Amino acid sequence: MAAKKKAAPAAKKTKDDSLAGQLEWVKAAPKLSSAVDPKKLPVLEPSESAPTAFGGSATDLETTGTVLRALASAKADAKLAEALRRETTAESRDALGLALLEIWKGKEFHGRLSWIMDAIAALGGDGAMMALASHVATWPSDGDTGRKRAIAAAAILANAGTDTAVLELMNLRQTAVVPSVLEATIEALGRAVKSRKTSLSELFDVVTPTLGLDQNGTRAFEHAGHTYTVAFDDHFEPRLRDAAGDLKDLDQEPAWNALASKMRDAVKVQTFRLEQDMIAGRRWTVEAWTRLLRDHPLMVSFTRRLVWGVYDDETLVTAFRTAEDRTLLTKDGDMRFEGSEHIGLVHPLDLSDADRAAWGENLADYEIIQPFPQLGRPIHRAEDAEKTETYVKRFAASQFKSGVLRDVLVRGGWERDSAFLRKEYTRHFPSHGVWAIATMEPGVQAGMATYDEFDQTIATIEFREKKGGGMSRTPMTLADVPRVPFSEAIRDLAEVLAAQD
């Protein structure tokens, strides 16, 4: 009979929050795998605030080895992670995390070294976090083992608690293809936001990177003795221009490709969250909007391309956008804030047909292409014959591919039911106090969604309002459904039909 494997000792609880105190118990921990040799790895260096953890030494190989044994055994204990980030330099932690990831990659991401994911989260290095996220995006293509590894990594990124980890989760939310990985990423992102005691949008107000851009949304890029200007073009693509203003192609330059990739990722993330802000009816004070959006080096480009509004409660008072010189423009001329206004993204339902057309002409005159459908967004209202009903049956005769239905709706913020025979998708509109529920017929068994056959209809869409601490059991009369949730829910289903054509 094979001998039972000795369990790793649990981390000893101690009141000593120092790194030395958090490492006392490690003496009894198992040795590291032979693949992880501290002598061949970057050494952790003490921060200026806590050099005594290393006995005053500039580097300490023994302490680094002890830290690695702790990380391999204790699975990124929270207090150990806090001590590491407090008492060691960010540069040395990042270098160690990157080196560990390379070791794991060299061993084809073997399960015995999966603790390295937890170690990277505990070390909290930005570079290592981004490198880990890049692997998460590709692991699902390695089969079920890779898929499960990607799901585990999403949770670990959430636990890391850093701004970079949150940004990488948001990037993964936009790019994940495998449904279970996408759902795990959405769940992990939700936990990361909840741990900060804020909302996703409010969090992205403060973690959005500047990417080295100035207040006008441009920056310099040096290459081969030349200085180029980096700016977004009409399609929100990062482009280079020389001193004469001519476009320059440096697609073979790694440094430029890396910067352009970061800029594209940032635009993709912010495009999604601002579209959700429009749907949710989020409001900013003048001070917050000016500081976080118009004066932010990246976000200023969004304030130029989107139509914003001054709101009195839920009523649009004035629509405006930001000009190239960062002044404010209505469709008729200049405007200034008084200081007490509340600002939001204009939903097209807030505009009359005439104003919507006028703003469309205004943007067209300046050749402005919006990052997401705003003025040109399809609008859906309850038809007269529907208003006394409690169910929308517009899609009952339409045929859907269950795989496309799942992909489009889940990425758009809908949740699948957890039954073996799945029949419902639910989307919560929290700021409106409403849930939309789309019911499939005949339903699809878990894991059996298809891209090849039109196997589903959407028999009904119903809306339920908040009641007590949850959702009412009674569908709302369609005439009573708030206009934005109604329009957006119908739009989402129409998007599925368009995507599968």
Radius of gyration: 26 Å
Overall number of strands: 15
Q: Rough shape?
A: globular
Distance between the termini: 60 Å
Tell me the helix content: 40-55%
Determine the mean pLDDT: 91
| Structure class | alpha+beta
What is the spatial order of strands in the main beta sheet?
Answer: 5-10-6-7-8-9
Q: Helical segment tally?
A: 16
Q: Can you summarize the main beta sheet?
A: 6 strands, antiparallel
* Strand content range: 15-25%
Q: Could you name the ranges where pLDDT drops below 50 across 5 or more consecutive residues?
A: 1-9
Textual characterization of the structure:
This protein is an alpha+beta fold. 41% of the residues lie in helices and 15% in strands. The chain has 16 helices and 15 strands. It has helices at residues 19-22, 61-74, 78-87, 90-106, 115-123, 126-138, 144-160, 163-175, 179-195, 200-207, 254-280, 286-294, 300-305, 353-365, 402-411, 483-499, and strands at 219-223, 226-232, 238-241, 247-248, 284-285, 308-312, 315-322, 328-329, 334-335, 342-345, 415-416, 421-429, 434-445, 457-467, 470-471. The strands form three sheets. Strands 5-10-6-7-8-9 form a six-stranded antiparallel sheet. A five-stranded antiparallel sheet has the order 11-12-13-14-15, with helices on one face. A four-stranded antiparallel sheet has the order 1-2-3-4. A hairpin with a 2-residue loop joins strand 6 and strand 7 (315-322). Helix 2 (61-74) packs across helix 5 (115-123), helix 8 (163-175) packs across helix 11 (254-280) and helix 15 packs across helix 16. It is globular.
